[in-house]
Amino acid sequence: MQPSRKLLIKVIGLSVILIFLIFLHVYLGKQKITLLCLHGYMLLTSFSLTKFFEKRGIIERFGFQRNNALGLLVVTYFGLAIVYYFKTGDIAGIFFAPLFEEIFFRGYLLGTLCQHDQNEWKWILLTSFLFGSSHIFQKYPTFPLTESIWAVFTPFIGGLFLGFLYMRLRTILWCFLVHMLYNLFPPYRLSILMVGLLIILLEFLMKRLFQDKQETDISFTHHHEGSISGRAQKNT
């Protein structure tokens, strides 16, 4: 079933509202109240729309099964321990932002679109673009063109890998972990992006190789069966 235009409008509309809230958060001087509204919007929107409007299970949508929930608790403790060890004051940017962004962009938006259409890479690209666009105010208020483009482009590339992880594992657990490590270690961000793209490329090549081998085996089998059938008819 193809997703309706109404569904696409809803997904884009939710993202536009999020970008507007980010603008208010940055414009108002990064006040705690605006950050609370921002994170609350991502969390409540994702869970409430899933549970009460779409009538779908939160556990299945976000990958909160028992084993994944235990892993999420371990990752949460691990993340808080890292933040404490490095004595960073940006707990919101390193820990909470990755968690809520993965719930919103991968768990809800990507999960919603892919349930209506199995063309997953189309929706990974769309949600990655929306994810990158949400970082457009990262360099506010200077807005230098090159930095603004880079601030959108790098999250877009990261969103491709995070979307890939979510679609393969069907849980936000590992997306959250990778996202948190990306935010924690700025000097290694380019390396993390390159490794992510390499994993996607290897998966694509392996799938292509497997498909070619499978088609070759099927062709050989049909040819072999045809030869046997021809010899049988000739003998009779």
Can I get a quick summary?
The chain is built from nine helices and no strands.
Report on the architecture of this protein.
The model has no long low-confidence stretch (mean pLDDT 82). 82% of the residues lie in helices and 0% in strands. The protein has helices at 5-27, 32-53, 58-62, 66-85, 91-116, 120-133, 145-169, 173-184, 189-235. The chain is globular, with a radius of gyration of 22 Å. The chain is mainly α and 236 residues long. Helix 1 (5-27) packs antiparallel against helix 2. It has one domain (5-184).
Tally of domains: 1
Largest sheet: none
Radius of gyration (CA) equals: 22 Å
Strand content: under 5%
Q: Which regions are unreliable across 5 or more consecutive residues at pLDDT < 50?
A: none
* DSSP strand count: 0
Helix/strand layout:
Blueprint lengths: L4 H23 L4 H22 L4 H5 L3 H20 L5 H26 L3 H14 L11 H25 L3 H12 L4 H47 L1
Helix pairs in contact: 1-2, 2-5, 4-8, 5-6, 5-7, 5-8, 6-7, 7-8, 7-9
Keywords:
82% helix; 236 residues; 0% strand; mainly alpha
